[in-house]
Structures are given as structure tokens and as C-alpha cells.
Design a protein that fits this description.
- The structure is a homodimer of 552-residue chains.
- Chain A is an alpha/beta fold and 552 residues long.
- The first copy, chain A, contains 20 helices and 20 strands.
- Chain A has a 7-stranded mixed beta sheet with strand order 15-16-17-12-10-18-19, with helices on both faces. Chain A has a 5-stranded parallel beta sheet with strand order 7-6-5-8-9, sandwiched between helices.
- Chain A is globular, with a radius of gyration of 25 Å.
- At the A-B interface, strand 3, strand 4, helix 19, strand 19 and helix 20 of A face strand 3, strand 4, helix 19, strand 19 and helix 20 of B.
Amino acid sequence: MTSLFETHRDLLDKAVAATRSRDYWSAFPEMPSGKIYGETAKADGQAAYESYLGQPFDLAGHPGAGTVGEEVSPYGGALAVGYPAASADSLIAAAKAATAPWAAAGPQAWVGVCLEALKRLNARSFEIANAVMKTTGQGFPMAFQAGGPHAQDRGLEAVAYAWEAMSRTPATASWSKPAGKGTTIAMEKRWRVVPRGIGLVIGCNTFPTWNSYPGLFASLATGNPVIVKPHPSAILPLAVTVRVIREVLAEQGLDPNAVLLAAEAPGGTLAKSFVGNPEIALIDYTGSSTFGAWVRANAGSAAVFSEEAGVNPAVIAGTDNFRGMCANLAFSLALYSGQMCTAPQALYVPRGGIETDDGHKSFDEVAGAIAASIDRLLSDPGRAAAVCGALASEDTVKRIAAAGALGRVVRASGPIEGMDGARTATPLVLATDAASSDAHGEEQFGPIAFVVAVDSAADGLARAITGVRNRGAITAAVYGTDPAFLQAAEDGFAGVGANLSFNLVGDIYVNQSAAFSDYHATGANPAANACFTDLAFVASRFRVAAARRLAA
Amino acid sequence: MTSLFETHRDLLDKAVAATRSRDYWSAFPEMPSGKIYGETAKADGQAAYESYLGQPFDLAGHPGAGTVGEEVSPYGGALAVGYPAASADSLIAAAKAATAPWAAAGPQAWVGVCLEALKRLNARSFEIANAVMKTTGQGFPMAFQAGGPHAQDRGLEAVAYAWEAMSRTPATASWSKPAGKGTTIAMEKRWRVVPRGIGLVIGCNTFPTWNSYPGLFASLATGNPVIVKPHPSAILPLAVTVRVIREVLAEQGLDPNAVLLAAEAPGGTLAKSFVGNPEIALIDYTGSSTFGAWVRANAGSAAVFSEEAGVNPAVIAGTDNFRGMCANLAFSLALYSGQMCTAPQALYVPRGGIETDDGHKSFDEVAGAIAASIDRLLSDPGRAAAVCGALASEDTVKRIAAAGALGRVVRASGPIEGMDGARTATPLVLATDAASSDAHGEEQFGPIAFVVAVDSAADGLARAITGVRNRGAITAAVYGTDPAFLQAAEDGFAGVGANLSFNLVGDIYVNQSAAFSDYHATGANPAANACFTDLAFVASRFRVAAARRLAA
């Protein structure tokens, strides 16, 4: 029988090559097209999603008595899906029981299971898209792409790094050392990959699959059982993911409890029950800085990979495509109502304005043109709904209301037409002056942007860099035409580890990071303590043990 | 002008290849031979060492007012070398000032400087051997090999991993994504390696260079300035190392303060002043578990790579070469008076004895034969001095005296003949029974070994594995002939991350680990939280930052 590893070997090799060339490559098509996914895929996916609603979620053999779960869609309505209600102790016990047999399966089995699961997840992209959309509030196109193929690509990327790192050590070597007088000492050496222990993946509300797949697949592909602890508001996409992986494990005669679901209702404390437990060896976390700091401080000897809050800056020094710049920034601010960890929040503009292809633009004209571009983008209700989606959390509604006091309102936030019953808000754009306000420097999660008046482009750059150093950022955007300024920006943002995009116009946005090419986060500022995904993200998830003996 | 990187490129490529094949390879000859190092090298090295004694140690441009240092040789006599007396604040300030220019030099410069420094250190191997011998108490042959070429090989190995990890990301890529209707979105992307920050290397008393070079060169080769904090009793070998690296830096027009020396007298608290300082991003530590636990708990966001205490087991189930086994174990116990982190401490032997090529041997006969082999090995005073050397610390003398009460004395410790004025002790061998004593389970650093009676080989193996899991170990030795038992041992010790040697006889010992082939420690048990050296040891010492723009 062909092993899963052999079946998917070509895919793996291509993925490894892509992480090295970093040219465009994707394993999983991002177009939600019937021609690619099957003519009935869209309807089948929606039906599959709907079949979960109001039902217990079946995970054969999973620990837990009774059900738990209180997901309510940002589009309105409770999902009423009941997930296995399992205590932290019972989940850890099940993961512990699965540890030795999963470790014994070895790297090819780990990688093979992951690749097969990713292929099956890809085939279910419409189903997952519905689950992501209805739990996060993302518009459908984003829920499909980011929640489906893009997340799968990121999972595959983690598997590729894991395979490269693990397979770097040969299984065996003959070692022959000259010992003088024509003699040698000859040894046979063997190495094996030793997983670290149980992995814990703490998911977030906004990108349950995209933010969780790297850690989930990195830990699983290096032989560690994984407990997946979704955000209480976005359980379903990860529950489906866990089920698919468990099915592959069971088919391979492996213990399905190598992947477990830790579901709970809002207000639960499951995550706190796991962190610091000596059985938990690896923690992947995406969420608030407050809880992230607690996780890092209380993880004990577990390795923690965390993505937390940040304030992504844009520095606008000038442009030779004013209209394109404004349209591009408008889209970045509106996309998923600013609920992306990569969306800009603080847009620095010289107090005296900027030079553009359309002549000099004053500070107010720049702020106004960005606001007008948002208006234009959202003028079509269908497009507005698809771009903005809904707000994942009621907290964001309150934050928008409170933020109105933080600056001069250039563009007011409002509901999105035609999305009755959904929790929606278009971007709030505020103008402030760095001379008198620091409001832009604190994360305001959601559709809240500051256009910040600064002395000059250089002043804006300096403030942006300081902000990244102190508060963290995953992305930075710069618009300018002076090569010396652009070089200073490149050096400055590199120094604080914000991944920089220059002068973006058209259909590519600072928010977007492409698997296999763009690294997501750097680990070099407070927004994340690691890059997702690179070699360092996987290299410490396993150890190598040796046995040596004299050659016969 | 040819860059240092280009000059040493071939050496680097060979080192990278060696870490992959893991066959025997060494860049630096381990024989203290005049034919290799020059006919006058031995005398020159001794003279260089002696020239330091009773003098201020010159480090041009190094921070510090006045001198500090109270090294006393285990062979007798004060070194009376005065090192720059610099406060933690002044060292951090100097390292901080060196950070940006060193980061800007880039990977090829970092690696080139490291390779050139290693070559120069190799040329000074006799000088370093004298410094290591006189500060640690090692015999000269070991001080030369472990303190010189082997340490240099380990430094080179770290540089090789660093180069491989850094160069994995291309400097640039053209990214071209199909965007439908025959169009593409094309971007130019650039990446650069961003060092983490200031590295701190905390050295140990017994292997100042061998244990410090991996962290020192791993951090330096990834662009981080490094503060080297030697053990107060073994400063000189690292002071010479720091001077050599600083000379290379200065010749290259770089700030020599990219490498700094934090010297202090015994009882100082410099290490505590650095740990937890937010400027310190990387910490490499070798030493006690007590201080190691403090370092790990107080390091803040710094990455910590630590090697701490352990209890290395040997399980003796049987042998087809009884005399060879006893001689081999005797050497492992006597070598550097048991002061190696890789030396066995707990030797498990079935209570009912073992089968050998020389017939059945009772427990007492096994213990007695190992003791007799030690006697034989040390019967020649010159050999005894070369093998055992002297005791690095007076604490070890006290420990040996107290250990006599922990079991039945099979072989008493005593001074080594002809080493007047030196602090010496031959191995103490104790017999205990696991049914009534746990004394073997706590680290007894120095020449103290327990032959532990157990129910059976399987019982001994189980106890050894549990011991490694709870107390840590870097090595494990197993003697046996039953393939099923050997496989169980291989599986069991792999599970707890102890690197295993089977049935060693002749001139290869469980204590020895060969750079480029054997990994040192695994990170999978309490003896160390990382392997030294592998990809994971270097991969998180730098980050990668990106800049992207639309293609013209």
C-alpha cells in the first residue's frame, strides 16, 4: 500500500522548494469556483455547514460527556452546535495516551497524515468558508480564501518547514575517525526525531483557521499531539478541521486523540487550565496582548509562539499615484472592517501636506481623499457587505463608539446597508495631530483609523518606527518617491521587524501576506514573539536523540 | 580585497556538509603536535600563557576602569591576571552602541569575522590549552583537545548552522501571481536578516571554551553583539578568545565592542545584573541547575539556551568483553576526575550479577572489576595526572568527603601521586542498592560513581530512564548482548533524550561527543533545554524582515 507520505511526496517537495525560492506558489486554488472545486461544491458546502446547526457535533471517540458551545453569528442567530464538553484533565489524559504511539509513527507518518488532512480540508473549502464566515463575520470571499485555501497553504508551509528541519538529520551515519598508525575508530550512529510533548493551539475569533493552522500543523508534523482550543465564538471551523484530521488518523490505524478539541462557552477558562501544566510542551497563541503576556509568563518550560496586538503604521510622504494610493488604503482599512492583524491603523501625513501626481495635497485633502475612497468603495451595498463583512465582537461596536472622541471625525462609521440583523460598521476615520495626541498609538481593534499630522515625512517615519518598537506591528506601509526616504524606511522598519510594503496600488494590499513568499510577523517586535512560518517556528518543536555503537 | 567570508568560504561549505552527513570531520587538528602547529608552538603557547600572569590583561578600547580577577589554579598558585573591571551598565551600553553597525555589516561579514577568529584561535591552541589547564584543572591533553580544536570545531559548527539558517532566505525574489484574464501582479521582494539583540554567554568553570563557543559563535554569526561572562575561576581562556575576536573586528573596521568581557572576582553578581535586562535578547548558560532555573525564570523575553546538571546513567546488562567494558568505564569515570557533564554517575547492575565472556560475574565482582580497572589505569602517576587532572573547585573535595557515607566504599578516593600542590582526587566508587537508597539519583559532581544493585537489567533500564526524565542526563551507556534489550534501551533513552552509546570498548568513551556528528545534549530532559549545536540552537537568534514593492 502506498503510504500517505509517498502519495503526497511531490506536493511536499514543491512546497519546500517554494519556501526557498519565495516566488509565487500555491497548492490550493483560491478561487471559489465550481470548475475547480466541483459544480456542486458551493451548494454541498453550504448544506454541510447547515447540517451542523442545532446539532451535537460528532467526534467519534473524543473525550467528553455532554456538549458545550454558544456560538452566535455576527450575521445574526445562534449556531447551536454542541461540541464535546471535556475537561482540561481529560483532554490532557487523552493526548498523553496518544503521545507514545504518535511519536512512534515517525516523521513520514506525521507528515503524510498532515498532507492528507490538508488535501481533504481543501476539498471542504466551501464548508469551511461557511463556518468561518458565520463565526467571524468575514465576507464570503475572504472567508473562502483566508479561511480555506490560504489557511491550508499556511498549514502546508509549516509542514514543509517541519519536514526540511526533521529530515536534515540523517537516520544513520557511518563515522570513521583516523586513530593514528593507520587505524580507525568506526561507529554506526542512528538518530531519531523525538517530539517535544503535547501542543496547545489557542485560536482567535477573527481567523480561526488561518491563524491556527501554522501552529497546529507545525506541532502535528513534528510528532506532537495537539489540543486545539478555539475561541469560544469561532469553534466550528476548527471543529471541522479536528474531525478531518481525526478521520485520517483513524484510517491509518492511529489514535485519533492525537488531535483534540477543547471547546467551551464564552467566559470559560480552559486555556488557563492548560497553560503551565507541565504536560503542555508547546503553545501557539493568537489573541490579545493582555492574555498573551499572561500565557508567556505562565507557560513554564513550554515553548510559546504568540501573535498579539499591534498598531500597524502607514507613512505617507508623497505619491505619483494619489488616486491609486487612496483607493488602495481605503480597501486596506475597509477589508473585514479593519479586523485584520495586518490592517493599518495609524496613517502619518505631514502637517503641511504632500506632493502628488495630482499636485500638492494638504493634510486635510489627504485625509478627505482616503475617506472619499472608502465611501466610493462601499457605495455598492453588495460590495460593501462582501468587503467589510460583520464585526466579530460586540466589544468592537463599543470601541468604535468610544473612539469618536479620540480625534476629529473625518469619516463617520455607520451600519452597512442591506445587512439587517448583522453587526456591521464601516471604517471610522479620525484626524489627530501627533503634537497633541497619542491616541493613534494604542491598538483600536476594528474599523478605526487615525490620520496623524506630523512635522514631516521623516518625523512620521521616526514616530512610526518608535511605535512599532514599543507597541508592535506586523505590517508597515510607506508611500513616497524620494529614494533616500524609501531606503531610510526600509532600514528603519527592518530594524524593528515590521514587514514593509512600498507604494501599493491596485489589487494588492498591505494586509495580505502570501504563503511560501511573505513571512507573517517577524518576532522582532511586541506584535509577535515569532515569525509564522519559518524554520525557527518549527525547529524547536522536536528534538533529536542518538544511539551509537562500534561498527562490527 | 578578498573578504574574510570569501577567504574562508571553502571551510564553511565543508562544515555545512559535515553537519549534514555527520560522518567524521574536523576542521582543527586535535593532536598537540609540532608538525601541525609548528615546532615552537608548544613553547610559544606556554610563554604566551605565562606572559599574562601577574599582569593587567590588555583589551584595547574595552570599557572598564581598573582591573578585576582572582583566578587561582587547581594546580596551585594565583594567576593574578587583572581584567577590565566594567559594570553591567557600561558593558550593555558598549554592546548597545555596537549593535547597529554590527547588524549593518550583514551575514557574510558576521560569518567571515567568526571564521577568521576561529582560525586564529586554532593557531593559539597551545596558549589556550595552558589557560584552560591552569584554570580548570584539566590534564594537558584534554585541555588542548577539548579547550582548543574541539571547542573551535564546535564554534565552527554553530557558524555553519547559522549560515545555513540565514542563507535559506533569499536576499531577493520576483513574485508574480496570476490575477486572471491573462494578467499578473508582479512584486519585487527583499529580505534581510535582523539580529535579535545583545547576547549574553555565561561560562562554566570546567569547560570555559568548549561550553561557551557554541553560544558565543551562534549569536555572533547571526549579527548579535555578545557579552561573555566567564566563570570567575576560568576567565583567561575566554579573555584570550574575546581579544582575538576583537582584533579581527578592529582590523575589519568594525566596532570591537561587538564582543565584550564581563570579568569578575568569585562571589560577584554580574550575571544576575544582566539577566532580565530588556537589552539582553539571548542567553547561553552552562552551570548549576539552581542558578539555571533562576536564569530561565528571570530572563524575561530573552531566549535562553541552558545546560545544567544531570545524572548520566550506565546500564550493565551483560557483555561479551568484560575486561574491555571495565577498562572503558574506568576511563570514563577517571577522565578529568568525573568533572565532565557527559561522565556516567549511576551504573546499574543486576543484584544477581551478569553474564560475560569471562563467565558469570556477581554484582560485587562487577563493581570490584571496575574499581580494579581504575586502579590499573591510574597506577602510572604520569598517566593518572594526565587523565584525571585536578579538581576545579574546593566544593568537589568536600563533596567527595561527604559522599563516603552514601554507600559502601568499593574504591576509596585519594590524592594523585606526584601532583603536589594540586587539588586532586581519584574516583570514589560506591556500591548501593536501589531497593534501599536513592543516593545515586542526585548529581554528585566530580569523581563520585555509584554501582547500583537492581532487580534485573530491565529494572535498571527503567530506573535509569526515570532518572533521566526527572533529573536529566546528557549521555547514557548501555552494555548488553540481548537485541531486544538493546532495542528497548534505544527506544527508552530516545524518549527521554539521552544520547546513548552501546557497548563501548577501546579508545572511544561515552563522555566524548564529536562535533559535526554527535549532537551534544538534546533539550528533551532537565540536563539542557536545547541541543548544542543544531538548527534550533541558531534559528531563533535572528529574525527576517521584508520589504516589497510592485515590480516596475
